[in-house]
Amino acid sequence: MKKTATLGLFRGFLWEIIGTVFGVAFVTVVRMLMRLPAWKPEPAAVVGALFGALFFLYGVGVLDDWIKWANGEEAPEHVEDASLGWRRYFSVSLDHKVIGMQYLTLALILFAIGGMFALIFRTDLAQPMAQFLTPIEYNTLMSLHGIVMIIGILVGISAIMNYTVPLLIGANDMAFPRLNAFSFWIAVPAGVILLSSLFMGGFDTGWTGYPPLSLRAPLGIQMFFLGVSLSSFSSILSALNILVSVTRLRAKGMTPFRMPIFVWAAIATSVISMTATQLIGLAFQMSMLERLLGMGFFDPIKGGNPVLFEHLFWFYSHPAVYVFILPGLGIISELLPVFVRKPLYGYKWVAMSSLAIALTGFLVWGHHMFAAGMAEYLREPFMYSTLLVSVPTGVKFFSWVATMWKGKITFPSPMLFVLGGIVVFLLGGLSGPPNATVSTDLMLNNTYYIVGHFHDTLFGGYVFTLFAALYFWWPKMTGRRLNETLGKLHFWLMGPAMLVLTLVMMRVGLLGMRRRVYNYDTSLGLQPYHMVMTIAGFLIGLSVLIFFINIFITMKRGEIVTGNIWNSRSPEWQVPSPMPIHNYEKEFEVVGEPYDYGLPGSRYVKFQGED
Amino acid sequence: MKHFIIIALLVIASTLAIHAGLNSIGLLPVLASAQGVSIDQLFGIYMWAIAFVFSLIMVTMLYSLFVFRRKKGETGEGTHFEGNNNLEVAWTAIPLIAVLYLAFLGARSLSETRRIDPSAMVVKVVAEQWSWQFQYPDYLFSSKDLYLPVGKQIDLQMTSLDVIHSFYVPEFRLKQDILPGRSVDLRITPTRLGHYTLTCAQLCGAHHADMVANVVVVSQADFLAWTQKEIASAPKDPVLIGQQLASLYGCAVCHSVDGSKKVGPTWLHLYSSSVPLSDGTKVNADATYLTNSIKNPNLQIVAGFSPNVMPDTFAQALTDTQIQNLIAYIESLK
What we know:
The complex is a heterodimer of chains A (about 600) and B (about 325). Chain A is mainly α and about 600 residues long.
C-alpha cells in the first residue's frame, strides 16, 4: 500500500476524485449565490470533470517543475532512476522512451476497450432487431467504439513517434521533455472522462456529434465533448514537440533527404495535428457551451447553423485520418527495405508524397458533406481535390512494389504485418474514389460501404503497421523478442478475417444497408452477411488476444536479444538492446544514405571514435 | 523482360476475372430512377478501374514476393538500385490525368442527376424523430406513405422539425440530408413500378434505425385513383385539419398543447385569454390576434419571449383556409 501511494498514477487518480468533488461543489455554491436552484446535474458534471482533470495533472506531478519556476525556484535536472524498474512507467518520467511506452500502454488499453465495444454490438447485429442491447445502449457503444478507437489511434501514433523519432534522428530526448510528459498525462484523465459517459446516460450521436441531435442527447455527450477537447491538447502539443525536435536535434550530417523515411511521415502527421486539431476542439467546446449556457451557434431555432458544425468538424476530422495513416505508411517505407534488403525505391518521392498527402488533405473535408446540404457550388471543387489525394498515395504503392523488385525477401512477423498493411490499405484506397465523385457518393454516403472503406484504410494504415512496428521494435524496447510462432498466428488470423469483414461490409453497403443502425430490414436478406461479419469480428478479437498473450509470456520468458537482430542500418540498432537509458552514449554522424542495402562498403552512420 | 511479360499477362487475366466476378454477384440493388442511370454508369467505370489497379499492384507484389524471396541457403543482399525519376514522373502523371478524367465524369454524372423538369410535381417531405410525412400540395392532403407516379419528375421539398435526417431510397440511388429550419430539394424521376423502402440515412437518435416509410411507385392512373381515395378519407373537421397542420409545419416544436413552456407560448387555454405583451399592454387572443401572430410574428411579442424566433414565412406558406383551420384547432384547446 505504501508503495502504491508513491506511484504518480495513483496520486493522480486520488486528486482527480478530489478535483471532481471540488468542481461539483463549486458549481453548486455559485448557483446558490446566484439564487438559482442549487442542483443541476449538467454544469456540475462538466465543471466537476474539468476540475478533476486539472487536479489529476497536479496530483500526478507533471506540473511540479512549472509550479517551481512560477514561484521563482530552480527545478533540478531530472535524472532517470533505472532502479525504479517498472514503477518508472506509472509515474511522471521525462524520458521519451518511457513516455513512448506509457503512450503505448494507454493505446493498447483503449484499443482493447474499443474492440470489446465493437464485439458487443457486433454480436447484437448478428440477428436483426434489438437483441440484448436497447437502442440507446447500441448507439452509445457504437459511438464510443468510434471515438475510443480514434483517441486510441492518436495515442498509438504518439507512442511510436515518441519512442522512435529521437532514436532515429540521434537525439537523447525530445526538444521539450516536460511538455512531452504533459502531453501524455493529459490524455489519461481525458480517456477516463470519455469513458465515464457510459455511466452518465451514454449518447446517441455517433462520434460525429452533429447538432441539433447533440444538443438534445443525454448527459453522456458532455463527457464525450470534454474528453475529446482535453485529448486534443495532447495531439497539438506532442506534434509541436516532434516538429521542434526534428528541426533542432538531428545528428550531424543528417540532411533532410538523409533522414530515416519515418521521420518524414512524422513531420507530415505533426503538421496536420498541430494546425487542424484546434477545429474539432473548438467545435466541441462550442457545442458544450451551447448546451450549458444556451448559446445558439448551431441550433436553427436560435438562429444557428448546423452545417457550420459539420464544416468545423470535418476540417479537422478528415485531415485526422491522414494523421492516423501517415505514420503507418512511414513504417511500411521504413521497414520494407530491411526485409527486402534493397534501398527504398524513390526515397525523395516517397518523402514528398507524405507532405503532398498532408497538404492536399486540408482541402478535401467537404467530401463528407456531399449530401449534407452545403452550398451546391462547393461539391465539384471538393470532388476534384479529393481525387487528387490518390495521386501521392499511388506514388507510395508503386514505390513499395518497386522496392520489392529484385530483392532478397524474408518474411518474419514484422514483414508479414507490413505486407498485410499494404494489401488492406490498397483495398481501402481503391474503395475510396467512388466516395469522392459526388454522384456515386450520394448512393454510398452513410452506408456500410463507407464503414468497410474506412476500416480498411485504418486497419491497413494504422493497425497492421502498428503491429509491424511493435514486432520490429519490441526487442529494442524490452531486450526480449516476441514469439515468432504466435506472431505468425496473430497475422494469419487477423489478415484474412479483416479482408472478409470489410469486403462484406462494402457488399451490404452497396445493397443499401445504412450505417449506425441497431436493426436492419430482413427483406434485404442481409442476415447471413451479418453472421459472417460477426464471426470475422471475433476472429480479429481472438488474434489480438493472442498478441496480448504473446506480450505476457515473453515479458519474463522471451528470447533475450541484444544485438542487431534485423541486420538494420538504422542507428538505434547499432547500440545494444534494450535501448540505454540516455540513448546514444557516443554521438554519431550521418555519412551515407539510410537504405543503401546491397551497396558494398556503404554505411549510414559513423559513431564517434569509429573509423 | 520475361518477368514483365508474365506480369502483364497475369494482370490482364486477373483484371478480367475480378471484373467478371464483381459483375456476376450483382453489386447494386435494382435501379428505379432516371437519375440513377448515370450513377450506375460511373459505378461500371469504377469496377473496371478498381479491378485493374488492384490487379496491377497485387500481381506485381505477389510475383515479387514469390520470385524474389530469399531461397534456402541464399546469402547476400538484393540488387542495389535507388529509383528512376522518369518512372516516378510517369506514375505520378498518368494517375493524375486518370483521376482528373474521373472527376470530370463525376461532374457530368452529377449534373445529369440535377436536371430540372419545370413540370415536376412537388411533394413536401417533413421528417421528424422518427417518422416521415408527405404532403401533396397539388392535392391538398398528406400521407404517411410516399406514393409516386412513374415517369414523372418529383420535386421533393424537404424539411426537418428537429434534428438532421436524410432521405435515402437505395433503388433511387440519391441521398439528401434534411436540415431543420430550412427546405432542401431533391429531384427524383421514378422509372420502375414497385414497393421500396425509404430510410433515414443520417443518425438521428436512438431509434434512427426504425425511421422508415413505404415508397410505392405506381402508374399515373393508379396515382390519381390513390389521391382521390386519400382526399375522400381526409378529415373534414377544421380542428382535425388544424391539428395535422400544426404537426406538419412544426408549430408543435415550439408551442406546447399541454401548458408546458417551450420556445414559444403554449396553446393551452390561449384562445380568448388575455395575453400580456412585452410593451406592457394586454391583448385579447381572438382570431384577429392569432392570424396576425401567424402571419407577422414579430409585431406583437408576448411578455417573456424573444422576437425573431418564429419564422415569418407562414404568410406565404399557408393559405387563409389553412390558417383558419389552425385557429380552429387552437380554439379547441381553450
